[in-house]
């Protein structure tokens, strides 16, 4: 078993660059970043993201004992609790939100990968943690256009505030500092691509 020579974080960035570009330019994301979304549309999106985060973060917590590298995905990074709080702030009962077809396909995939290759969960998590870089801009727009008060409906999008860059750098260092066999690295990269595809499909349903 050989260990990966290239830093996995560089490989992730390179492998998903085109998917990122497409995600950024998708009509739904452009609508979010320019604040052109209704409160209901925003809450619907948060509800679907809640299912994605809950599935992934539940698997990460359950498998940390068996796969120590999952420790780089810390509780502080988890989105599901913030998504539930944001939904409540917007007047939606989180328990009432049903996963869409694309969301269910993505969460099924996350659970299947978790069972066969737990370290690959880091590939899914990378995409969600990385998305906070752009989400911070979306939060700014939505505070303005939807009149969200800081901490009431925007917690998921902008959890770190001014610490965003430092938190992202620390995560890159922690995840990049683990050892990955070539097989592990391939599984992490595939998971990251699948998360981008899954979210693109989910956003397309919005
Ligand atoms: C309006 C939409 C978006 C904007 C404006 C945006 C913006 C950004 C920016 C500026 C960065 C660079 C941060 C840096 O290197 O300092 C970034 C990184 C990243 N974004 Fe987005 N983004 C958007 C949508 C998304 C979406 C939908 C996803 C995934 C679901 C995503 C996932 C990522 C990831 C994984 C990274 C880290 C790339 C790396 O490895 O360095 N982004 N984004």
Overall pLDDT confidence: 95
Largest sheet: none
Helix content: 55-70%
CA-to-CA gap between the ends?
43 Å
Radius of gyration: 16 Å
The secondary structure category is mainly alpha
CATH level-two architecture: Up-down Bundle
Q: Name every ligand kind in the structure.
A: protoporphyrin IX containing FE
Number of helical elements: 9
Shape: globular
What is the N-to-C order of secondary-structure elements (H for helix, E for strand)? HHHHHHHHH
The strand count comes to 0
Task: Walk me through the structure.
- It is a single chain.
- The chain is mainly α.
- The protein has one domain: Heme Oxygenase, Chain A.
- The protein has 9 helices and no strands.
- It has helices at 8-25, 27-33, 39-63, 80-89, 101-116, 121-130, 132-145, 164-176, 182-204.
- Helix 3 runs parallel beside helix 5, helix 3 packs antiparallel against helix 6 and helix 6 packs across helix 9 (182-204).
- The radius of gyration is 16 Å and the shape is globular.
- It starts with 7 loop residues before the first helix and ends with a helix.
- The model has no long low-confidence stretch (mean pLDDT 95).
- Bound molecules: protoporphyrin IX containing FE.
- Protoporphyrin IX containing FE (HEM) is lined by residues 12-13, 20, 23-24, 29, 33, 126-127, 130-131, 133-134, 137, 196, 199.
- Residues 12-13, 20, 23-24, 29, 33, 126-127, 130-131, 133-134, 137, 196, 199 line the site of protoporphyrin IX containing FE.
Entry summary:
By secondary structure, the protein is an all-alpha fold.
